[in-house]
Amino acid sequence: MSKGVENGIGGSSGQPVMAGLNREPLAHIAKRDEIPMWKAWTIRLIAVLLSLVVCAVVIFGLTKLNPIEVYKAIFSGAVGTSRRTWVTIRDAMVLLCIAIGLTPAFKMRFWNIGAEGQVLVGGVATAAVMIYGGDSMPTWLMFLVMIVCSIAAGMVWGLIPSIFKAVWNTNETLFTLMLNYVAMQIVTFCIVFWENPSGSNTVGIINSASKAGWLPSLFGMTYGWNVVIVLALTLGMYIYLKYSKQGYEIAVVGESENTAKYVGINVKKVIMRTMAISGGICGIAGFILVSGASHTISTSTAGGRGFTAIIVAWLSKFNAFAMILVSFFLVFMQKGAMQIASQFNLNENASDVITGIILFFILGSEFFINYKVELRGRRKEG
């Protein structure tokens, strides 16, 4: 072998053959050890602002409309009047309640996709109490029974897949998902059993004359009780997960079941207990929907909120207070969709496109929160 080849020099040009292979990449991605909360939320805020700019370009490109006018219409549709504001708050509270219910299960790495069914069985239990006890129970007792029954129904619906998971290690994602359809059939059966004359999938307004079982206004606020109940659950869940022994056990089981067993935690008990809590809170959402909002029960009472709440929980990183903002934002955009559809004669999917772009940017911002990009020169200096 020649001396030139030994030294990595090839041909008469004298250029290093392997030099290019040893060159460092232009940028390097490294996981952050920790990031201050203010910096994380600043990154999210920048992502939202950038998403609005992109949305403006998309709106103008597709519809030739003034993006500012479209944004004004979305704002008007969500909070333009006192009535619209309270409806937005009401729906945001329901979505928040379901997200709070999903949080302990998800933190335990139990993928509860059955919130829709848990909400439905909680709602049908509430409707049953309203129908059969509306004329025979005092108001305070009726509300107490409705809450207890909705929680119990949701807990049972949450316990079923958790028992199968704990004992036979079944797939909780498929199990909870299939139970949604079972819950829909139960609602349909109950409606038929209650002899709905129209034969449709709704039982009509319950106790429309007496309003027995309807959540009343609180301090003049139409849906004041909805807000109080859900915010109390939010605070309770935050304290439960962060400061209680059971919250610690949920976190340990979620990180590693083997570690949990090693330190003496009864994993099966934790799984069943946590899913009972998760289902019970979703059952309360059913109570709020039937008693405090629609005053009826149907197969569409949950309205897809059980799946939307999954997005709320994940975007919030299972932070109960962050879920308040995310829930309000998603409902805000949903209500705005109806307004731009009527005002500009656009399909409601136009707002879904806007919401999707914003969510894409928010999800993308999580990358920059969890990772940092180091340029070649800066990395060498470090």
From TrEMBL:
It holds the Pfam family BPD_transp_2. InterPro entries: ABC_transp_permease. The chain crosses the membrane at residues 41-65, 113-134, 140-160, 172-194, 223-241, 270-290, 310-332, 353-371. It is found in: Cell membrane. Keywords: Cell membrane, Membrane, Transmembrane, Transmembrane helix. The keyword Transferase does not apply. One of its GO terms (cellular component) is plasma membrane. PANTHER family: ABC TRANSPORTER, PERMEASE PROTEIN, GUANOSINE ABC TRANSPORTER PERMEASE PROTEIN NUPP. This is ABC transporter permease. It comes from Hungatella hathewayi WAL-18680.
